[in-house]
From TrEMBL, chains A, B:
Ranges where the HTH hxlR-type domain occurs: 17-123
Protein name per Swiss-Prot or TrEMBL: DNA-binding transcriptional regulator, HxlR family
PROSITE patterns, A to Z: HTH_HXLR
Keywords: DNA-binding, Transcription, Transcription regulation
Organism expressing this protein natively: Actinoplanes philippinensis
UniProt xrefs under InterPro entries: HTH_HxlR (IPR002577), WH-like_DNA-bd_sf (IPR036388), WH_DNA-bd_sf (IPR036390)
Gene Ontology molecular function, alphabetical: DNA binding
Gene3D superfamilies: Winged helix-like DNA-binding domain superfamily/Winged helix DNA-binding domain
Amino acid sequence: MCLTDKELSPVDYEHTCMIRGDGGRALRRILDQICNKWTLLVVATLDQGTLRFTDLHHQIPGISQRMLTLTLRNLERDGLITRTVHAEVPPRVEYALTATGKSLIPPALSLAKWAITHAPGIEAAREAHTQKN
Amino acid sequence: MCLTDKELSPVDYEHTCMIRGDGGRALRRILDQICNKWTLLVVATLDQGTLRFTDLHHQIPGISQRMLTLTLRNLERDGLITRTVHAEVPPRVEYALTATGKSLIPPALSLAKWAITHAPGIEAAREAHTQKN
DNA sequence: CAGGATCCCGTTAGATACTG
DNA sequence: CAGTATCTAACGGGATCCTG
């Protein structure tokens, strides 16, 4: 793919093709799943180790029970976390990252670093721009 | 922040705090802006260099004029791209990444690599899971 | 405790038509 | 060429109430 591109340095070539791929469809399928409001936060929180539903609910301020449930179900379906139900009363359900889930931490971290580094500049640009109008 | 956490290895400590931060709010403000359907793709495409509106429209299959316009306006507002209008007939408008915009490529690339690497496994887990129901 | 079921609303984004 | 305007459907996500 991208073999007909010309006048690109090798590094640009690699960049462009890696992200754009088949028009970006394959990438977007995964990214749409990861980049919603809560997924990255849940994964990051589970980086601590095994946690129960209520633990997660307390450690992620602002999330509703509904969204926590949905997010956990999706992560389980995609094989990023495990869900273990203990046959007790009251019930106890524990969530933990799988190997795939853990492998998401470093890339997520690099994005987080970028966001935190550039947040002030972006906010400034945003305000300067809205001032003009 | 996170200074009261205990029994975390230094690396886990760093991971958790970087991403979770103030409950993830600062991170999400930026991420919400980056992780929509088209932004990353537009930035990646502009990594080639300066491009015109129509060039982008052709190189990003599936994007509508409307969404391309909106995405470009947001990127310009946040200082990630420049928009140069040439006073000609017919009009010519050129878009290019700023330094901030270029700095987004490496983190985006690391996420892209993760997505591409784990896409097969995720798809498989997803199908295996839906088979069960 | 760990959700499931509903209702409701704002935002996102696609389609289409029009313009300086 | 490079947009703008308008309408609409779809989806994400919050609030609330209920349950094994």
